[in-house]
């Protein structure tokens, strides 16, 4: 008899057994892992003791059918009787109170009558769970009785500490939509409590009563062997129609999986503006592309001849309606908002616009679009407040004065959400920001450098190639204090490396990035000038005892003599807690090692440069970070721009770089604006109501850095249980795949079915999972097997299932454990007796 049931909370097993009144009696099938080790009745156990799982016993009627290898895969719902072997057992029919959990310790029905123990003591409709019988309607979730919660279709329908258990619901199957990614089935379930993840100091878990799930991480190895995964454009000869010289954004624009919702599970779009014939100040065109089934797909191309291709974009849900939108700047001073689904015009506003941002400033659920001339209503484009005069530099949005309302922060000023100034430092305030075609600006960013809980504003003064830091202090004279006086960002590099008369020779400094480059727990600052890329120690910058030249962590020579204003992004590709720099100058894309500046990657990437920079996001939903970089070829014959790769001089368009071996960590599927910071945007493109200050969130305190909010190394962990299913005269095997890891398990995972030990037995078929399985989700796959031999049906030869049963590599995802990928059971069906 089974004594250890449902260790990892497969409610389907206990619900089905209770419906037969068998209380899990009668089956001596086993489930083992694929490594050598002891077999535990009714469980699947890893040999290292890190996790123990109870196999899912599938139940239910046939539902959606998916084509498998020579057979049909059918998702099974929980309304169907379970199956297993036949064993005669005694069930105590003495009436018991079912108003709550009842102890299932040994009892006796009479002085000479048979005794019951464990599951045998439970009444019909009750569920044996650990040492008790749960009440009718409850399930045994992670060895504890629980009444299932609300109905759900996805994790977002449940509370933060719950997940959606699809084994408790009925599938709602939609026919495939030819416009979608193959069509999807929409299962329903009920919310159940998630188990906690075990901490580093938690003791080893009892396999029969775990209090937490073991951490599931995959060490990437940090290899930097990137390849070009996808490319768009590539027109490197006149009229250079795919040239781009602005920062692309990554944002969800449409429902790719046809579930009726725009969620982070959809495939994001890459949005950018192009120009032709070197005319980068006018006649731009706005594009959206996406990666679907491994192919670049053009979604839409709008506002041709209308947008200014040198100016920036922002994307997200700012109109208060379902879906997301994109805001762009026009060549004649307009602001355009377009609908994400098709690029159609939403509204137009006549306001000064260069680097728009979106945010819910007041936390009232109504988003604003902020541009250099005004604060606009996100839904209509109406002016809510004007800046008079217009802003004196680029800006960022954050709560600088800690009043719970977001502020607009330039290099020298702080503005409230009504457009009024509350602090003016008069530092790095330059009218030249608007006097140049290329908008060479002082650039601010916000972070907590001294770790006192209050932010500082770091400013890169492009006119004077200098870095400074100030903070808002209402108790100080004029409401601010200077934390770091200007430091020359060129350090000891020689400006003469840029030609006489070029901007980079006498000026320079691009938008700053903020991240912990050296792993000391304090955010640092990176910025690109005309002649070099410099990283400054955040700890040194706020230490008054450290002289300016001594605040450098490192500086590396680069070439950006044209604008000397390019930006950069940072990302921890290998998950070691130290951020790498991603930067493209006039001719090369480089990745620098955070603490030292060692070059980890160098590839040709030509651009005449403005303020663009590469962005990092998972653009193809493969669970790995990607680098999205743009380029232009119209200036490729300039000696400072020329770069020949594979016999071709110049690059143009969009390229997506990824690692060839699946060795980079996962990240978010969004980078929605030039001033990107994680707390400003949800992964589905919606805006937070009451944005948290980035510097107060554990693991953040950064700017222009992407990361996964949970474990960067989080990985899936697939386990499988197999059981026979007898329906009238039909005989089938059902394998239930469950993901007990920390990251999603992609769809398309192969499950092989065997009679006898897989190494020496017979493979009878294989199926593939049909949907992504998020942590704790499961899917049952049914393999018809009416011609099963008698020794299988009689229980003489066991049946096996192996998840990820393929020799084909899948570098886009890796499991944290592979020694628990096999499940086994008797082939003999359980019959009520």
Automatic annotation (TrEMBL):
PROSITE patterns: PROKAR_LIPOPROTEIN
Keyword Signal: yes
One Pfam family in the UniProt entry: FG-GAP_3
Region (Disordered): 29-115
SUPFAM superfamilies: Integrin alpha N-terminal domain
Biased composition (Low complexity): 29-64, 74-113
Origin: domain of life: Bacteria
Signal in keyword set: yes
Record keywords, A-Z: Signal
Protein name: Repeat domain-containing protein
Species: Nannocystis exedens
Organism lineage: Bacteria, Pseudomonadati, Myxococcota, Polyangia, Nannocystales
């Amino acid at each position: 008899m089974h004594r250890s049931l449902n260790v990892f909370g497969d409610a389907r097993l206990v619900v089905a057994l209770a419906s037969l009144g068998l209380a899990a009696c009668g089956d001596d099938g086993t489930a083992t892992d694929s490594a050598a080790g002891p077999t535990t009745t009714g469980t699947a156990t890893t040999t290292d003791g890190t996790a123990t799982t109870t196999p899912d016993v599938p139940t239910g009627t046939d539902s959606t059918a998916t084509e498998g290898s020579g057979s049909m895969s059918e998702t099974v719902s929980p309304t169907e009787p379970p199956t297993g072997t036949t064993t005669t057992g005694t069930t105590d029919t003495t009436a018991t109170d079912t108003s709550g959990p009842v102890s299932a310790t040994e009892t006796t029905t009479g002085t000479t009558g048979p005794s019951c123990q464990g599951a045998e003591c439970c009444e019909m409709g009750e569920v044996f769970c650990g040492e008790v019988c749960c009440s009718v309607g409850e399930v045994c979730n992670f060895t504890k009785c629980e009444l299932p919660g609300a109905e759900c279709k996805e994790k977002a329908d449940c509370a933060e500490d719950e997940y959606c258990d699809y084994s408790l619901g009925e599938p709602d199957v939609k026919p495939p939509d030819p416009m979608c990614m193959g069509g999807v089935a929409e299962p329903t379930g009920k919310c159940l409590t998630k188990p906690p993840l075990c901490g580093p100091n938690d003791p080893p878990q009892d396999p029969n009563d775990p209090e937490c799930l073991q951490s599931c991480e995959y060490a990437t190895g940090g290899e930097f062997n990137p390849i070009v995964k996808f490319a768009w454009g590539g027109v490197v000869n006149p009229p250079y129609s795919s040239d781009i010289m602005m920062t692309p954004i990554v944002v969800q624009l449409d429902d790719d999986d046809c579930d009726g919702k725009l969620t982070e599970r959809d495939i994001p779009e890459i949005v950018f503006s192009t120009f032709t014939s070197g005319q980068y100040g006018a006649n731009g065109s706005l594009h959206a592309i996406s990666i679907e089934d491994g192919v670049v797909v053009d979604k839409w191309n709008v506002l041709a001849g209308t947008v200014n291709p040198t100016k920036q974009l922002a994307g997200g849900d700012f109109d208060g309606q379902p879906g997301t939108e994109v805001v762009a700047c026009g060549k004649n001073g307009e602001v355009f908002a377009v609908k994400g689904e098709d690029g159609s015009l939403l509204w137009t506003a006549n306001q000064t616009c260069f680097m728009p941002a979106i945010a819910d400033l007041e936390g009232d659920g109504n988003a604003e679009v902020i541009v250099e001339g005004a604060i606009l209503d996100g839904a209509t484009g109406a002016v809510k407040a004007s800046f008079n005069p217009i802003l004196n530099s680029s800006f960022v949005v954050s709560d600088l004065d800690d009043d719970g309302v977001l502020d607009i922060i330039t290099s020298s000023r702080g503005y409230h959400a009504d457009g009024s100034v509350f602090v003016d430092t008069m530092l790095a305030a330059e009218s030249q920001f608007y006097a140049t075609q290329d908008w060479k600006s002082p650039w601010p960013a916000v972070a907590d450098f001294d770790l006192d809980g209050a932010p500082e504003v770091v400013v890169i003064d492009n006119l004077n190639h200098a870095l400074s830091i100030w903070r808002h202090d209402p108790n100080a004279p004029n409401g601010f204090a200077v934390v770091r006086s200007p430091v020359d960002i060129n350090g000891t590099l020689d400006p003469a490396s840029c030609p006489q008369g070029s901007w980079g020779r006498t000026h320079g400094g691009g938008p700053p990035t903020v991240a912990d480059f050296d792993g000391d727990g304090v955010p640092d600052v990176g910025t690109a000038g005309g002649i070099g890329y410099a990283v400054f120690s955040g700890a040194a910058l706020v230490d008054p005892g450290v002289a300016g030249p001594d605040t450098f962590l490192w500086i590396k020579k680069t070439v950006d003599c044209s604008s000397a204003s390019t930006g950069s992004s940072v990302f921890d590709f290998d998950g070691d807690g130290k951020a790498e720099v991603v930067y493209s100058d006039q001719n090369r894309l480089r990745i620098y090692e955070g603490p030292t500046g060692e070059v980890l990657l160098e590839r040709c990437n030509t651009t005449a440069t403005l303020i663009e920079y590469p962005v990092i996001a998972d653009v193809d939903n493969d669970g790995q970070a990607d680098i999205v970089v743009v380029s232009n070829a119209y200036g490729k014959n300039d000696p400072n721009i020329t770069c020949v790769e594979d016999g071709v001089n110049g690059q143009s368009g969009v390229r997506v770089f990824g690692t060839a071996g699946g060795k980079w960590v996962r990240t978010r599927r969004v980078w929605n604006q030039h001033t990107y910071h994680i707390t400003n945007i949800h992964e589905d493109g919606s805006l937070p109501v009451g944005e948290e200050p980035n510097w107060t969130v554990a693991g953040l305190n950064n700017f222009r850095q992407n990361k996964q909010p949970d474990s960067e190394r989080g990985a899936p962990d697939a386990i499988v249980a197999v059981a026979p299913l007898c329906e009238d005269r039909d005989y089938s095997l059902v394998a239930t795949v469950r993901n007990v890891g920390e990251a999603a398990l992609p769809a398309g995972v192969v499950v092989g079915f065997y009679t006898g030990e897989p190494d020496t037995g017979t493979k009878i078929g294989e199926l593939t999972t049909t949907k992504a399985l998020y942590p704790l989700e499961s899917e049952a796959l049914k393999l018809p097997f009416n011609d099963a031999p008698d020794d299988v049906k009689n229980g003489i030869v066991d049946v096996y299932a192996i998840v990820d049963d393929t020799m084909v590599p899948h570098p886009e995802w890796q499991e944290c454990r592979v020694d628990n990928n096999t499940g086994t059971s008797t082939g003999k069906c359980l019959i009520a007796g």
